[in-house]
Amino acid sequence: MAGRADSTVLAGARVVLPTGTVENGRVAVEGTRIAGSTPDGARTVDLSGHWVVPGFVDMHNHGGGGASFATGTADDVLTGVRTHRAHGTTTVVASTVTGELDFLARQAGMLSELVEQGELAGIHFEGPFISPCRKGAHSEALLRHPDPAEVRKLIDAARGTAKMVTLATELPGGIESVRLLAEHGVIAAVGHTDATYEQTVEAIEAGATVATHLYNAMPALGHRAPGPITALLEDERVTVELINDGTHLHPAALELAYHHAGADRVALITDAMDAAGAADGEYQLGPLGVEVRDGVARLVDGGTIAGSTLTLDTAFRRAVTIDRIPVEDVVRSISTTPARLLGLGDRIGSLEPGKDADLVVLDGDFVLKGVMRRGEWIIDPA
User: Fold this and answer.
1) I need a surface site. Which of 56, 150, 162, 208 has the fewest CB within 10 A?
2) Nearest 5°: CA angle at 372, between 116 and 6?
3) Hey, what long-range contacts does 321-324 have (CB within 8 A, 24 or more apart)?
4) Which sequence positions are flagged as catalytic?
């Protein structure tokens, strides 16, 4: 396990670069960064028969390893972060779930400290400003309209670390809140929404730029009522999140999104809850009880899907081997695109000299064999 790779050359692998895949490629690492040339005295790691891709970036994640980002302590959050790092996610945004506003503000304060320490990349508020018609695994009793003053309270509590807020933009205050978020440099994401096509177009024009887990918790696409899915897919300003776990989406729905939006507008996410990287059993998602059986999380009361137990290495492997998405496109969707959205594209998301040495080693069957974060092996492929 962990160890600092002060000067390392990864040799012989298929390396996925922004310009394409290089056969028998080399990636040089010096300290915490990718180097432009081979450092003196570098250790060479032979990765023949493997792939080297950028570290994964998860912009929608509620926890893992039995621990919750939404309700847990700082130690709990670190447990979840380490769990996902061991599955290749070198950058993670902590997502909350619907709760009392004061509790969310306190949780944001704690999470912001972990952002400042470099453990998290930011905070995503999912709820409470969502539609009771499309609440998913959120407590209806705690939902509220997106009052711009209350939205502002949460982003202020995050002390500059809020990256995204999911809103049902058709609710009273929704459009005003989108404009507020855009003005403060926070992503306004359309999700858990019952909006029409026209209402979604209005939200995009106001500044919404992300679709929270496209298809899920929103009206289905209809030929007379195209709804939010059509509006979100057709607008080049919008990036769509997809949960590729085989439960949330039919493969044809994933293909439809890739076909219309393209890899540069798809962000593969986990929407993971506590049970990601952990065993089946009973868990909590905010105030709601969840049962995980055969890796699928559902609310105890009603059976609604309650997040996922997905890790991004599984999402990557599924996208390539089952969905037949080109490796280069999957890399863009799982690393480059979310890094850009989070404003971190100058540091992470691709294998380029000067960027953080965040990378994942996969074998020929796309099974994870190594993870490096900022030049340190979390899982050493040797």
Assistant:
1) 150
2) 90
3) 321/365, 321/366, 322/246, 322/251, 323/244, 323/251, 323/254, 323/255
4) 271
